Amino acid sequence: QRAQVSERVAVERLAAFGVASEDYLVLVDRELRIRYVNRPEPGQTLEGLAGRRILDFAPAEDRDWQRELLQGVLATGVKASFETVLHRPDGSTVVLDTVASPVRAEGQVTGLAMIARDGTAAREAARSDERRVFLLESLRLVDTVIRGASSVGAMLSDVLDAMLSIFQSDRAWLLYPAD
C-alpha cells in the first residue's frame, strides 16, 4: 500500500510538469504498458491509454526492433534514443524523437520514462536544406559549364548535358517527355 501511495505521489508530481510540456511524457512498466501519459491525442483519454502496450502505437514494421530496444533498456538500465512514427487518430502522422530512460525503485529497474519530441518540423527543415544545397550545386555546375565553354555551340551542348545530368534524364526524354 505504501508503494502505491509513493507511485501516486510520483505520478501527480510528473503530471504537474507534463501539463506544461509540449513533449510526450510517458511512463511504462516492465511489461511495456502505459501507466501515465501527459497529453493524449484528440479523441483519446488518459484512462483509455492506461494499461495499453506502448508498442500498440508503433508502426507494425517497427514493433520488433522497438521491443528489443526497450527491453534492452529494462535489462541494462542504460537509456536509449530512437526515432519512431506516431499515426494519430485523425489520420495525420508525426515523427517522434524519443528517449527511453530506466525508472528505478530500490535499486531495481521498474519501468521506463519516455520523452518523445515532435521531430516533424526538424525533418522538414533538413529536407528543405538538402533541396537548397542541391539547387546551389546545380547552379554551380551550370555556371562552371558556361564559364568553361569555348564557343556558344559548345556551351549550349554542355549546358544541355549538365541539365540532363541534374534532372537524371537522357536525350530520349527530350523527344518523348512523360506527362
Folded structure, characterized:
By secondary structure, the chain is an alpha+beta fold. The protein contains six helices and five strands, in the order αββααβββααα. It has helices at 2-20, 46-49, 63-76, 120-148, 152-166, 171-175; strands spanning 24-29, 34-37, 80-87, 93-105, 108-118. α4 packs antiparallel against α5 (152-166). The chain is elongated, with a radius of gyration of 26 Å. The N and C termini lie far apart (70 Å).
Compact description:
The chain contains six helices and five strands, in the order H-E-E-H-H-E-E-E-H-H-H. The chain has helices at residues 2-20, 46-49, 63-76, 120-148, 152-166, 171-175, and strands at residues 24-29, 34-37, 80-87, 93-105, 108-118. It has a five-stranded antiparallel β-sheet.
List the SSEs and their pairings.
Blueprint: H1 2-20, E1 24-29, E2 34-37, H2 46-49, H3 63-76, E3 80-87, E4 93-105, E5 108-118, H4 120-148, H5 152-166, H6 171-175
Antiparallel strand pairs: 1-2, 1-5, 3-4, 4-5
Helix pairs in contact: 4-5
Largest sheet: 5 strands, antiparallel
Mean pLDDT: 83
Instruction: Kindly report the spatial arrangement of strands forming the biggest sheet.
Output: 2-1-5-4-3
How far apart are the termini? 70 Å
| Sequence of secondary-structure elements | HEEHHEEEHHH
Low-confidence stretches: none
Overall 3D form: elongated
Radius of gyration: 26 Å
Beta percentage is: 15-25%
